[in-house]
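Collaborator request, handled under Task 6.
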Amino acid sequence: MRFFALLLASSLFATEYKIKPGEDPQAVLDNAAPGDKLTFLPGLHQHGLTKHRAILYVDKSVEIELMAGATLKLADDFCKLEKSGEITTDQDAGKKLDDLEIGGDYDLSGVREFTIITDSEGKDGKPDTFAWGDKFGDTSHKRTPITGDWQELSRGVKVKFGSKTGHNVRSVWYVSYDGPEAYGIRIGHGRQPEAISGVRITGKGTIDMNASHNLQPGFLVKNINACVLIHITMTDTNRSVMAYGEHTGKFLPGGKVGPGESFDAENITVQFTRTINPNGSGYLLGHPSFRGNLRNFRCNFNYMETKTTSIEPNFNLDGYEVIGNVIKSDGEAIHCWRHSQNGVIADNLRVGDNTFKPVILSGAPKGWEPPMPPDAKNNLNAMGSRVSGPIKSLDPKPFGRRLLVSDYVGGKVAIVSADGRIEWSTPAEHPQDSWLLPNGNVLFSHVHGAKEVKPDKSITWEYVADAKVEIQGCQPLADGRVLVVECGPGRLLEIGRDGKIAKEIKVPLTTTKTHEQMRGCRKTADGRYLVSAKGDRAVLELSADGKLLRTQPVEGDVHDVRELANGNWLIALGEGAGVVEIDRSGKTVWNVGRNEIKDNPLFLSSSVERLANGNTILMNWLGHGHLGATAQIFEIDAQKQLVRQFTDHRQFTSINHIQVLE
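Structure tokens returned to the collaborator:
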């Protein structure tokens, strides 16, 4: 499985390339190293297509900024009408026979979408018949007998059915004659052998696919124009944003696939963008003609003006947020089409519509599984209620305590004030543990290592791990070293101030899969090590020299363990299993189940902390299909009554660790 991640953040980069109008951005990117930055300076950057039919094709971790006044635009007349047609058959999964071919010599009379529908089934030796027309939805030529040979339609186009009989009524095909696809900035081509992660696209510029002076693909074909950008105006294209996975297997009716490899896309955020596309659509999330998986997609706080559908959760989308968008559309605002699941659609406002259209519409073509109903709330047409009038997005619920927060999917570590304001933040790729140190610096782990940064975000200490491992936790130690949790080799490492390994503890794990081995681990004051053995579903206690002292099996993929003053262990049990407190004999003395906190299911307990007053703070990680579904942090008393909660889906995605600062 392969995936790419598109992240919104600032970054520390090695080299910045400032691209002037007229310079070749693809050549600059090809020469750049991972971690570098490309900045488009103000002015018109007009180019043709390069690799994989993109103005700029991205195959490495870089930051790209379009400055205010910079426009990346497709050159005039680069995409022209083509003679070859394309059959679209996946709008209908109920076919008994899918045997249509196209041929002939198209006369290039303009963009065409031929419609072909079987309108009778042959009996008593007679063939099946079909209706057709040379426009979308046009079936004015009816009851045409199927001959099994080439049959001319119009404008030089011919079709051929493999069989004269055996088709069922209402089988639908579309044949499109149009221009080739084009992309603004394309991240990956869908089947690249290595994952592409850490790409950041920011700025206040514009990307213009120049559809006014180029032939676009038709709206039914497999590959259509798109721009995938953050903080940038997107205009004059077919879709402003598209995201989907690919699959190498044979496509079967109803979205099924045969054996093959799935190239998946995950953890993508599109927020604070502006789409001005009066002749096209907005975001397509998932695609029936590619059929890989798309997971954990956030489409929040965007402004959109489109002719047709603005936001379309589509096929094989699992876990998505559509929150706080303002939508002006002549078509549908949010259209859930084909099977998607685990979605949250909330606080979206439809404007500019006085016909009282709904904000959300759901459905599927014949033979396709319909979408799972999303968790939908507070989505309104601004004209839908003359009594209440316009609405505003739900305000975040602050926690009432100052916190240091690790946002795993959101890609940052932040200090949040008691009233919910972000006081400070820094980018971090999949952070786990984070610590505010006595000197005012912040120490945190990320998937590739650990670092200590100053308030000005400069790095004062860093450990960089081998590229083949994952770092899933850290802890500052009294002697100045840093404990690092290394998955892959399955080790606990103590790293000195020189960034080198000072001590290594090999953990006796049975789980070999890197990502599943360990999460939060702690060194106690007397030198023992407590290990959250996630895949082994156990807490391990090791001596100072690494000898196994105790194995405590648990009911869950343990993510965190804390030793309390009385010697008990407080354990976060991971996905669906809640939190448990266990005494030295292994007896459960207190626990919190998944559904014990009213109206706030504990989807994945990623971390836990016991306060001096006896209250317990729980982290509720909201990945795996639960983005935006409920509160992210809870504080409960000993009777499991809710004391306070933290909910801010505008600024945070999936919080997995906090430090209470006051």
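The cover message to the collaborator said: "The CA atoms of residues 274 and 412 lie 23 Å apart. The mean pLDDT is 88. Please let us know whether this matches your experimental observations."
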